[in-house]
Batch of 2 targets.
Target 1
Amino acid sequence: MNRYIRSILFIGLPLAIMTYLFYQGQIWSVNHVSYINAGQPHPLNCISCHVTPQREGFLADLLNDSYLSPLNIAVSSNGNKLYITAQDGNALIVADVNSGKVITKIPVGNKPHSVILSRDEELAYVSNQWSNNIYIIDLIQYEVIDTIMVGGGPAGFDLDAEGKYLYVANTYTSDLSIIDLDSRQEIRRLLAGNKPMAVDIAPDEQTVYISSRRTIPVPFRTPPKTELTVVDANSKRVVDRKYITSAHIMENVTFTPSGDLAFVTLVRPKNLVPSTQVEQGWMMNHGIGVIEHKEGGRVAQFLLDEPNRFFADPFDVIFSKDGKHAFISHSGFDHISVINVDVIRELLAKANDKDLANYANHLGLSYTYVEKRIPTGPNPKGMALSPGGDKLYVAERYADQISVFDTKTYESVGQIDLGGPKKVTVVRHGARLFSNSSRTFHNQYSCYTCHPDGHEDGLTYDLVGSGRNLANVQTLRDLAGTSPFKWNGKNVSVYMQCGMRFSTFVTRTEVFPPEDLDALVAYIKRELTHPPNLYQLPDNKLSPAQQRGKGIFERTHDNYENEIPVDNRCITCHPPPNFTDKQMSNVGTIKETDDFLLLDAPNLNNIYESAPYLHDGSAASLEEIWTVFAGQDEHGVVNDMTKDQLNDLIEYLRSLGPERNYRDVIILKSEL
Amino acid sequence: MRRKTIILFGVVLIIGLGGILMTAARYEQIDDLLIFTQVSSEDGSILFDDPDVWRYSIKARIVAVDIDDPANEVDVLTSDFYSARSPEVSYDGNKLLFTACLIENDPWQIWEMDLYEKSYRSIISRNENCTDPVYLPDGRILYSVQEKDSIGNVINAIYAVNADGCCENRLTFHPHNDFAPSVHKDGRVLVVSQQNYPNKGDQIMLVMRPDGTKAEMYYKSEEKASFMSRGWETPAGRFVFIESTDINPGNGSLISISHNRPLHSRIEHSKGYKGNFHSVYPLQSGALMVSYQESAKDIFGLYEYDLTTNNLGEKLVSDAGFHCIEPVMAVERLLPRKLPTRVDKKIKRGYYVCLNTDFSQEPTNVRGSTDNKTRIVEVIGLGGKIVDIQVEEDGSFYLELPPDTPVRFQTLNENGELIRGPSAWTWVRPNERRGCVGCHEDREYAPENIVPLAIDKKPVSLLLEEQEVRYEFGH
């Protein structure tokens, strides 16, 4: 063989093979991306799907970063220091106002939510939402000196004037812990609405208000009713449960300095209205609830939106020192609204019940009481005023900074950099997109509005706009590995879920550009996780009831020793690790109003947090799935079970946690 | 040989560099180009009390001038045309749309010009007059067509066509004169609209999605005003236009409204000015370019106008023989949102749901009766009443309608007495679902969050069977 032929063989042949493989690979990858992205044009980028969204791995770590995400703020009485909870940084940050520098970062528990100072300001209390406790921090030594266990998911809290009692809203267990700070013991646990978020004690120290995020259970296809729990500060008992109708996501509650009114931030969803359009506020409105704090006081709602501009996801509300103005942070629209409180008082004074009903839907009324809209950085959350009331501090969660505004001119007068990473990673960009309403028509809602903290809002929507195919909102937490998505299983990927049809039916505006879609998907898959499962015992052990429930979940024979067909066993459609076989089934729950026959088996991770249940939200509880909607045993064989057995099954279901706890467990259908 | 090669190389290099320099120079020129319409000041073709006349001027021409040196002689862009109007520049600032007729008495048609090459092409060719072209962000072109509706009335309807002139698609279907479309940043289209049948209505500003869905009133002057020219959105989010009232027809006033609250934010900026405004265009700087005449005897010139101080600046452009109107700038502009569409022409129906017919801001027509609760909704087509339908106890009704067909509604009580109506004309596009909160309700009210009883039933169908119209709609 002469050397020319050898050269061709050694160089040309590998080149030809590589070229062939390259083109074949390109064709395959184009088809693959086209499939994942529902045929929509999208630039090829393997990293977008296979590296950036990963939770672990060298490359994923390289591409991502650890941010702080400031959430809430407390100010020292001399105005020199800010204390800031860093939700993703798991720290309490102490910052010097005068120098604009961070003094220290004190490591705290998992997902710190709020911070409050003791009356002598020697201690700070921090609620660790995912650790289910309150940290007590010595502000001289800057160290954690004690821990108080409370209910699940402590979030907002308030301290009485004497500094003796701490009232803590436990979001995940839907109750209120009252802590005696002398003994540092929880002395009372009171039921408080559904997913309570915030607490405020009235200036007269007689009453405590607790606002909730989710509606209490209401009859199917009726408006949400979200509880404002009223606790008597003397008896420490619940004395009233006020229901804010057609509203939810009441993230914060605050009394005016005079105590005559309390404001709650809220969202007014239009989930029952056929979603024929977004125009004229047909999908989501945002506003405040105003509670007259007196005997027989009324509850009114005022919108903060305008006819063609919406101010999504109001989060915090605080009042100026003189009580004449309220500041409301819109975490979904990167603005602060400044409210003239006296105008609200005047409107209330002249309103009858019919007027109040009209106020709640009047998009133009905000022009009478909104004095100013102040633009902020990304995702403004908690706020605080300087002791003199001349400065407003705003935690800009997705900028890792505190912005400072002059309360007279409403101008920005500076920022305090908390020291987070300066680069905006793809995932961080996705976080900003997720929480921002700019990608919906007229900024009417963000992803966060229906998926607060990446979860779901507990409502069923008529997105088709015809009273048909009603859709119970599903959680976005721990989605990876659970495709397809949507109840009818039409979307094979999160890309498809958030793609063109999403734009047509949900956002009703321009489709996400490819780089934004990449970022959004990466954020959803990487960052949105369930909080620790409150029903799981340490080391994934099971309680006796859960153990019995597991037996029922995996049983092969019913109580009469009849063999249960493989396809009708719980574990067949809901196998670990995600408790879904990702297949379509008919479980007998399809209604006449549904245009599809089969449903995607949902994953069961932290299922106890996701009431109501079934694809249309018609089952108010897990129990109802196998009682009211049991049918002829299409949804597993259950009609032979005793009440105790059903209780055990449900106890076990509640303990099912995210995939990471079960990744070593593989059950093949063929082994059943 | 070598020398020849060097010379050849040098020539090619010089030509290439020269070409690049010339191209760059032309870019610079286009960036500063002010384009406007000139209408002869002698033939009296600007008549403000009759929009049919001012839209079809005699021997009008579109010209360009360097904004930095407006005293220079204008460059006539439409010298090949008998008359041309309504210049509109593409979002990248490179192309010009206009309406023109090549020879006298030809119908006005839509043309597009490449501003670099000065070449032009016909976008559409119809027998009817086509005016007021505007670019959509997806590259399609909207314009107004003067034509006859199904019962023979002459109307103007809005059409859309692809940039290559294919796939013409009508968007508005009511017996109105719809003209002067413009595109808002949110992706919707604003159209000047005036009911033509059964009686002449007031001019209003209509807003709709660029597929013709969700059409609704955007703005109506409280003073029964006429719109003198196309409106434009400023960078600050106000919508500016020229209005003329019944009291003083032809006396154009400069008006702005806020996009956030268009029905209640009207500001008349030109109160201190005795002259007339004709047209307006927002500049990137935040100022306006306006066409203004100091008195009826004077010609219209172009001025800069500060919207915040209401100061009319120096006259930038004027020409003794011509009114200078309809200014636009050849600059890159922010692309509005590209809105998705659910219109599907294969689906020969649309749906209309009203949440509560009794929710209204208008007084009832019923005299001497306490029964003001709506029991019946009368559906009216171009040919008259089509059908009566029962409304639900909560005042809701749900209709399945033939698409692209104008209808009106009026509400009756149990005794058949008219409560309110008839409403404005409306239509649904194929596969469109439309909703309304009430009847003639205040459009600043969002719907109450309830399930309307009607939506739990099948819609009342005005179709007989698949693709067949059940009732006579006046076609």
Target 2
Amino acid sequence: MPKLVIDRRAALRGAAGGLAASIALPPLEAMFDAHGTAYATDGKPVPRRFGMWWWAQGVGGKNDRSSEWFPRPGNPRPWSQGGKTVGTYDDEWTFSPELMPFSRRDLRRDISIVTGCRLFGWSETMHDSQMIGMTTGWPVVNCGGFCVRPSRRPIAHELSERWRGGGERFPILAATVAGGNVSGVTSERSPAALFDRVFGASTTVRTGGGARFSTASRRSVLDLVQAEAASLRARVGAQDRARIEAHLQSIRDLEQRIGRMTTPAETTTTVARPTDGPSTDYTGRHDAFARLMALAIATRQTRVFCLTLDAGQSGAVYGHIPGVRQGHHALTHPPSDDRTALANAEALHHQVVTWKMERLATLVAYLKEIPEGAGTVLDSCLVFAGTEMDNPFTHYSIHQPMILAGRAGGRFRTGRYYSAWYGGGQSYPYSFGGGPTGSTNQENSTKILLTILRALGEPDAEYGGDGLTNDGRNRNYGRVTEPFGALLA
Amino acid sequence: MGVRQAPTSAVALALVTVAGCMADIGEGAWTDERAAGAPAGPRPPGGPGTTTTPPPPPPPGAALFAPVQSPRLTQRQFVNTIRDLLGDAAAAVAARVDLDDPIGLGDHRFRTMRAAVTGFDDLDIERLDGIAFEIARAVFEDAAGRARLVGCTPTTADGDCAKGFVARLGRLAYRRPLAPEEIARYAGVMAAVARNEGGDPWKGLEAALAALVQSPHLLYRVDVGERDPQAPGRLRYTGHEMAGRLALLLWDSAPDESLLAAADAGQLATPEGVRQQAERMLKSSRAARGVAAFASDMFEADRLPGLEKDRAAFPRFGPVLAAAMREEIERTAVDLVLAQDADLMDLFTTRATYVNEPLAQLYEIPGVKGLELRKVTLPAGSPRAGAGALGFAGFLAVNAGALEASPILRGVFLNERMLCREFGQPPAEAMNASVAPDASGTRRTLRQRVEATTRPPNCAPCHDRIDPLGFGLEPFDAIGAARATDNGLPIDASGTLDGVAFDGPASLARALRDNEAAARCLARQLYRFATGHHEDAGEEPVIQAVETRFLASGRRARQLFADFVASDAFRYARAASP
């Protein structure tokens, strides 16, 4: 019988405590068909999966270090859509210094790089708004002072809700490494806790004191809680009703999870339970989360994951990088009149970004090293790695750096560098051109969200929403009607 | 003390807004407004550099009261509720569940604001289910405790004893009496579980408790309101809703039987009835939790546990010291409000505070031993003496970078939180400003570097208001320790607030204490905290009534709470969108 084989050495790597769980792998009873692309039992194709990976504060420095992340062009050619040149594509690009971690892991053919998109409108100004703009495509809701919140779900949450009920145990798994969270749902902060939730004990949901009760009794309790939520839903106003409805759905799903996967399956593997190091062991925590997310995808625990390395104005001190002593946000704001301090800050930030890219490359490599059917788990995935701005020294978000990994089951084109800047001339370093809301020679960053949806087989004809910008102009800054054709296979 | 000489590579400023806070997108089951039918409308006017308080007037006929909503309980409220219902051992179990996340700028100002727009999602629900069974086990494993709680011996799992247990405990948990059909539903589950578990009726009751603890009627403060016959345009809260609101605000927890009895008797329908209960509640030891929750949110003390500082510069900063900093803030506020019933503005100038040994060492107060905090009077000569809350190390550390203090963060905090003067987002181009001439290699104070950076004309409109207040706290470093010099140079902590000159923390604190806007702002912040929402302009009349009453009372601390809950602002609501 074909089995999913997870490299035992890889699965155990990083396990300090030696605790491990032998887990059943339900889909992998699941022999693949002769082509290795569909489950033989029901002929269904391997589902497409979505992963979100997020890092804070972009890539560039204020001066000439700006270009250390952007790929080195090889043979850029115009890309036309609807009879109009809308960007350039380049399949012969080479690695920039900050992207070298992907080279070292031989991932060039597994990723595509996207630049040149602009975050239009209100979302253009500050971290939180930018993050919301990038992940939702919709304007923010202002909640007083600096407080902003999204008006729509971030893309990871959106997909998890669309796919809820598809047979996976968890609609989404989310984790946070150094703080912040772009998933839209509560995230795990401890790799050990994520392990316990997904692979722990009997691979039922965490039981707590419920272990003293039979599954039937636990379901009776949840039935009661469901009935209570349903009665409450009928009483409250619209916004509260939506929250109670979500609450109710979560109870329903929990009830379904109870008792599942308790029977021995035909295939098992061993997953190591990670030991949580100090909260500042950012590398260890990230890589443990990345490993667990990859295994959760492979074992069909979920179709969606979100791993937030850091977000917004992160105060994390990446002290494992020599010379870094300040919080991440403060690091990128040296005094405006001190060129030496600026140069030092840029040099340190370059190392921080390189370390972040190393983490992303690690995640992608984990997905790639798990075989699935004729290929690897990465083949069915689309991982979107984004950040809220291109340049934290200026807070600009007019050249958004993005990395996408995986082929989404053959629908997404990898190995490509696509620049959505089609205004001619040198695209980087840049100037504001028509002002923060007035540029017309760039693509809207929401296009990447529509591209992702299309690649994952979603039917959306358009995505994102309009609203007023902070100067009252430009009503159309979120909504897009075309994906990046150059990235769809 | 503290860092004197920042290495050149790390002289960055925490510019503009926040360092040390983590942004997130509505963790905790933020609800998509599409599902709620709400428009994704434009943001309110107020672009770069504009002050957004007060907001522009809404259209004619718009609301006068905060909208009715059913917020979820915060982590603290959940744990306190379990404590009051089931005792300390159960509360210790409940405290293991993680329902909150640190709040940062760019997020909702108060936990209560976040609680009003977020729910519980899959992971929360799973955690709550697990912890509910653990709480029930902790209670029922102890035979004596179980007997005390239940008060009778159930012979059947759906008999009078069992149903009486559910009715009595459920009333406190739901903050209202249970309807007969609700009790019947519990009885059905208790009987089914007892059957499943070998006929043991106690198991039925234990499962009922696990259900009660995770019931949405406990987890949400259910506010719906009812039409007010006196004024059809507004809603009034029912008596039992008022009981829940009072308990969660003043005690950060569930109501007691007296409060529910007052609701049963219709006594919470009048301001007098509400005030009477509030005054009783403020005398209870439980009131310390309500005041502590407000103080903790006001000073963002919940950010302390996750705060990172440079380990080389601040080897003594860690979880123990951070916990003491947080407790100092909460206990000082509780003492002022409940024990002293002081002029609340004394918060800014009090010399009394609470320290334990690590915090006393930071404050250079000799003779304090152990980890238990105790009340001390700050010695004269300390820059903290007479600076009151402005000398809280926790506030100073949260509003600072990992290595250096941040006059900008502190200035934004004092403007926004203490004066209710909010700023719009900085202009997009602001961050690209460069200042000539190059000052590389020049030895300067942090103040001098900040002044150079915020000098450009597009920065000045806001920073002329932000920076001076932050400069007043320059005698404190990034963890709130006193420092006599900065980078080997004398510290300039002078400035003006609304025309009043100050030089250093104590005189800045006096300027705030005597500032009417600051006093009004404290009352306004209580309104925001209690309603879980940032006001619209239409609410100004009810808020200003609260402020005015506070000023007229001599700014008495305890009376602020009693007056506020008896005011229209707390007793009435506008209808939520249909």
